[in-house]
Amino acid sequence: MYSITIVGGGTAGWMTAVLLNQTYNKFDRLVSIQVVESPDVDIVGVGEATVPAIKDFLQVVGIDEADFIKHTNATLKTGIIFKNWCVPNEDGSLHSYMHPFDQERVEKRLDVATSWLLSSRAQGYDESVSLSFSLAKDNLTPKPFNSKPYQGLVGYSFHLDARLFGQYLRDYATSKGVSRIEAHVEKVNARDGKITSLVTDGYEIRSELFIDCTGFQGLLISELESDSNWQSYQDVLLCDKAVTIQRPHKPGYTPKSYTVSHALNAGWSWRIDLQNRTGHGYVYSSKYLEPDAAESEFRAHLGLDESDRFNHIDMRVGRRKQQWIGNCVAIGLSSGFIEPLESTGLHLIYLAARFVALHYNFEQNNDVVIGNYNKTMCKTYDELKDFIVLHYVLSDRTDSDFWCDVSKTLDGCSTLKSRLAVWKHKVCEYFDVSDSTSHMFSDVSYRYILYGMKYYPELAVPFKPGEFDEVFDYLDNRKAQVCSHVMSHKAYLQDISGKSGFVSIDMSKGK
What we know:
Layout: E1 2-7, H1 10-24, E2 31-37, H2 53-60, H3 65-71, E3 75-77, E4 79-83, E5 96-100, H4 112-118, H5 125-129, H6 131-137, E6 140-144, E7 157-159, H7 162-175, E8 179-182, E9 185-191, E10 194-200, E11 204-205, E12 209-212, E13 230-232, E14 241-248, E15 259-264, E16 267-273, E17 277-284, H8 291-302, E18 311-314, E19 318-320, E20 324-325, E21 328-330, E22 336-337, H9 345-359, H10 367-393, H11 401-406, H12 414-423, H13 443-452, H14 469-483, E23 486-488, H15 489-496
Parallel strand pairs: 1-2, 1-12, 2-8, 4-15, 12-21
Antiparallel strand pairs: 3-7, 4-5, 6-23, 9-10, 10-11, 13-19, 14-17, 14-18, 15-16, 16-17, 19-22, 20-21
Helix pairs in contact: 1-7, 1-9, 9-10
């Protein structure tokens, strides 16, 4: 029997274990898969917002949606609302826009974005063309009554408790035959560019494939790589630290069905509502703000007093140039990190695990296969890095040194810079970004950021006043129709509490 050893539990380790187990052991137990999890190592515990592809992962591995929501305190997410990323509006109100998960299309029209750009723009682009915007405004879900699992009238994802999700996946994986070894890796033995064994406080472990999910430390992959294997993004993604806090809901509070990203003095803050609590975090640049000052600013932003305790996190922003070396693959934070502005963390884990399943052929592996994996993952990280940078360089804020300097980071992103030059003269469309390897952000997403941040193209398309009234009348009718057929977030969470599929099993002692 072939053997795969994953070192590191948490979300990365257990997501990978569940997916590989489903791939190789779906019908018969062909591969021994074990996760080595240290009881002494804590997980980072952030990354609690997701993108719609998380539903693909959950369905592929056979997890029931209702049970998942119950056991991870999850809520639904229709998108991200960005606040204060540009200077205030002309009326003095706070600049705000939404990046939702949908965009309506209108028949017999060249493009709905062109229709909006040439119209009076009485409403923002998000409010004009997105059903999710209307749902979020009234805290509704995309779920009609009696909807099927993982289906909605528009796309959605989840907010979840990262720790509970890791535990839930652990229980699910071990119930399906994955082994859990509670031990601390004391030594990594390597020879000729491959790991030969791991020495733990009680075991020596040998496998055909080792997967490094040990977080920023990269315990396994670091034994095989050269000093030049790290590609830093620090020159274009300036934020490298975070200060976080979690606060329980007050009685009667209904969780919001969207994430909030609020720009601050040297970065931005997140707000993520779970069923039982709200997670807050301030992602900032240590070049412009000391940790104590960041905590003080964030405390004031949240209206908290000195009795509230915060957690501080260091972030290594960048990626490994080779994430698969010999018989070792780095997945999760050990492979790289892009700040959590657009909730890319769990999707990168899913992509990496999926690519391993598609690439790995045991003794038939060769340099071509490994090279293609590394090329694909590096391109994916670079692509997502550019998308995050996009948010910053479009800002017109100049009220702090951070916001004055952040616009200069565009010079370090040649692909993004050339695209923005083109998008100043034409609508962003599918073919402009169709070479995506992440399959996460299409032209639909780019448009919400571009037009939400007031980056409009100069169009020369002829039109006449009132030409697009029927387009937006149709869209308004669609919004009203959808909103009348879906459940509120509160009603959906109450309804889901009575549904369950997979029964969680306590495998914490490896029994």
